[in-house]
Amino acid sequence: MRTTYLSILLSASLLAGTIEFENAPRNAEHALPNNPNQILSFNTVLKESMDAVVNISTKTIIGNQKELYRLYNDPFFQKFLEQRGGDHHLDPQTKKQDHSLGSGVVVSKDGYIVTNYHVIEGADEIVVTFKNSDKEYIAKLIGSDKGSDLAVVKIEAKELTPISLSHQDDVKLGDVVFAIGNPFGVGQTITQGIISAMNKNHVGINQYENFIQTDASINPGNSGGALIDSRGALIGINSAILSSSGGNNGIGFAIPISMVKNIVTKLIQSGKVYRGFMGVNIIDISQKLEPLYSHRKGAIITDIQIDSPAEIAKLQRGDLIYEVNGKKVDDTRDLQRLVSSFTPDEVIKLSIERDKKEITKEITLISREYTQLSKNHIAIEGLYLSQLTEKIRIENQIPINVTGLLIEDIVAGSEAHLNGFRPKDILIQVENIKIENIDDIKNAFKRYKNIKKRIYINRGGSILLLVTK
Predict the structure, then answer these.
(1) Residue 151 contacts residue 114 (beta carbons within 8 Å)
(2) pLDDT tens digit string along 257-285?
(3) Which residue in the list 223, 308, 341, 414 is annotated as catalytic?
(4) Most buried of 312, 336, 397, 468, CB within 10 angstroms?
(5) Same-domain status, 419 and 335
């Protein structure tokens, strides 16, 4: 059954993060030197871009020390020790080991840095250093997205020089490009090449692939670094190489700037990426299927999930989707990428061929996470709430004396999302109604519907009060 989400207006100043990118000018001119005594050099335009690329190293806790480290940094555990007058600092014998070396790119003056998901995956500590400096910054993980292989970390620093960001329309096949990074941990280097191909997918690296392919040398350690144009503007984040030996074979892949802007903005706003979901299984048009359709490109629906947006919009098996909001769909990967670029609750327009007739359908997307909710969950007023089962308590380190409902997820774009509710908050009380189970929250929202009400949440041991309507 489809759930309707009511608006929640929060008075608390728990607003999501924001970022203002330093965009390069639009409509860049593509030209060659025209002076016979002119040396083709990019020295001056590369300097600022090089300053914006940082080295990233990660550390992990060794062996059974990991659980001790987690406990000593758990706010509930620290309060337990403080109440008993005990030493609540980390055991000095806890050992860490260097895990990986990679690169990152500064995208804001106040310390936001974009890198690859696989560079910081599993890290207990993230260390950032700048070119020609021994100073180390301990970075905070803001959010990560495995599907796109992107992550955002933040350091406490002011007045940094962020890289300027190009625009997708200014990136052309054959453009001269430079890869900046920290290959093999030997320090910052620059390699040069051209854009060999655009919109590369079916590479088998990430779930959502739309790579820029380049022959600029990208080696281990370049991951998370910058791919820039000849102006010094960022056009992509270096992600992977295609190689049987692990070395550079002239085939490198970078995540394009359009995806970088989209994902980074979402990670800074909410710490994760909420992708739109329509609920269909799809296949490409094969040679045998071509005679059945007028369009030669698109994605064919083979199945539709029950109670999904696709079923509500009355899509059918055999429908060929060839456009989304006027953008051409080449194949199944293209459709997946386009739909996932929208957020849940957005309405998209599909151009469909059905029995060789062209029709249009509007479909309201939902969150993929919503389709995975179990019987212990409820979706209400933009919040996905779960009862505190023994399994959930263990997974989230929730003490037995804490009662309430765990906020598993939040509908992107809802008032709850925009005004500060966070996943892993525990909703404990609405006005004078103590919340212990699903029935409690249903009764509370029904009783105080359309009037201002106080909602209490437990966030990491601290009790916060939100006023909603």
Answers:
(1) yes
(2) 999 998 999 899 888 888 888 989 999 99
(3) 223
(4) 468
(5) no
Higher pLDDT, 403 or 416: 403
- 229: annotated active-site residue: no
Catalytic residue among 57, 100, 124, 149: 149
Residue at 430 is within a domain: yes
In 3-state terms, what secondary structure has residue 346? coil
Amino acid at 294: S
Active-site entry in 49, 108, 118, 377: 118
Six-digit token string for 41: 């050099």
Query: Which amino acid is residue 94, in one-letter code?
Result: T
Residue where a domain terminates, one of 249, 270, 291: 270
Residue 359 phi/psi, 5-degree rounding, is -135, 165
Segment 1-26 mean pLDDT? 55
Q: Please state whether 204 falls in left (phi above 0), alpha (psi between -120 and 50) or beta.
A: left
Active site residue 294: no
Single residue among 364, 385, 403 that ends a domain in this structure: 364
* Cα dihedral 327, 24, 216, 252 sign: negative
Of the ranges 54-58, 355-359, 464-468, which one carries the lowest mean pLDDT score?
A: 464-468
Q: Would the pLDDT of 180 be above 70?
A: yes
Q: Give me the number of domains the chain comprises.
A: 3
Contact 229, 176 (CB under 8 A): yes
What phi, psi does 127 have (nearest 5°)?
-115, 130
Q: Is 149 noted as a catalytic residue in this protein?
A: yes
> Looking at residue 396, which CATH number applies to its domain?
2.30.42.60
